[in-house]
Amino acid sequence: MAQRRSWDAIVVGAGVFGAWTAWRLRKARKRVLLVDLAGPAHARASSGGESRMTRAVYGADAIYTRMATASLVDWRALSRRTSLPIFHETGVLFFFNNMVPYAQGSIEAHRAAGLPTQQLDRAEMQRRWPQINFADAEFGLFEPRFGVLMARRSVQEVVAEFVRDGGEYRIARAAPAGAHAVSLNGLGETADAIVYACGPWLPRVFPEVLGDRIFVTRQEILFFATPPGDTSYEASRLPGWADYNGGDLFYGMPQLESRGFKVAHDKHGAHIDPDTEERVLSAEGLATVKAYVARRFPGLAGMPLVESRVCQYENSSNGDFLMDRHPTLEGVWLLGGGSGHGFKHGPEVGRMMAELVMGRQSAIEPRFSLASKAAVQNRSVL
Prior knowledge:
Order of helices and strands: EHEEHEEHEHEEHEEEEHHEEEEHEEEH
């Protein structure tokens, strides 16, 4: 019987972290197999859906400012290679009702990084974007070079490039099978390195290691119609935005590709099972966001909901990513903990993970280590 083919690396999970890791490894001419249980950025994946904001505002967390800025180079390059856009340079506006530490830390981190972030007062924001009611906002931070990524499309494009470059992609259910080994639909495969980038399924794949360290929470995303013939809510007229006023965080994006005006309440919901959760919008979530839209975007008051999406975050205890070796299985790596802000960092996460797998980088970033992940949620990364 012919001997099974061996691999330099097998990546389990074709979300944004896994896809970019496989892409980076293949660019290094490694023999790579990428596996997913349902398809790149599928409907239940954390990388699914229409859009994600990319921004470098992270308070004093300069590591994420650097990673977002580095990743944006790759997102722009990918967008230039595709027939439909991956990246829309809408700019991103964060607005605040006072100079909180998060805002001050962002200003200092961006100044140190040489980013062209603009600090705008209320009058200037109102002049530029009259669609938004800034009555209770004191100032904003505007990032002109950032914007919105087309989520599902971008992951599918990364996987397509990986395959065109000689990588192999399969749909299969994966399960750990020991050191350097994985079972794919019951058949064994081996590799020098196996990277598990399973998103919300990661704690289920490794319950003894991650069962109480990755918290999967429900998130609701809403899209509203815009007034007929009114282009003021299009991406050419309005940035991506995040509202830090009043304690709750709301964020959203202008209408892109005629799909509606996106709004979300960034409130970590109930813990869920990604396999069984019914993806149905709650009446409470709809009422909360409708009331917010009527107050902050008065021109959209009363406009109907045209689409909604229920997805999930796979949170680490404090919001930092996980990028480390399995504590007992040789050749096995754990990658995840996107924590609701990871998508934009996909290219840089993939680069860092590939460098670790190939031995070109030996030290694990302490914040991304397994040892740093606690069993109690205390989110500090926003």
